[in-house]
Amino acid sequence: MTNLPPPGTVLGRLEDLPDPGARASAWNDGAVILVRRGPTITAFLNTCPHAQRPLNLPGGKVMLHEGAFIVCPVHGASFAATDGT
Hints:
By secondary structure, the protein is mainly β. It has strands at residues 21-24, 32-37, 40-45, 63-65, 69-71, 78-80.
C-alpha cells in the first residue's frame, strides 16, 4: 500500500486546480489526486483498485465526468469525487 503524505504536506496549489476539476498531485510522483468541487478539496490515492493503474492521464490530468465522478482511463470505472465509492 502507498504511504500517505504526513500531515501538513503541501499537495498542490489551489490556483492550479480548476473548479470543478481534478489533477494528480506533485507529491511522490503523483501518488495522490486532488479533486476540487467549490470550496471542498478531497485527496485520493491515485490508483484504480481494479486495474492497479494510475487514475491520471499524461500531464497529470484526471477525467472528472460531470464534475462528480473520477473516471479510470484504463477501463472506464467511475468513482464518486466526494468519497471514492
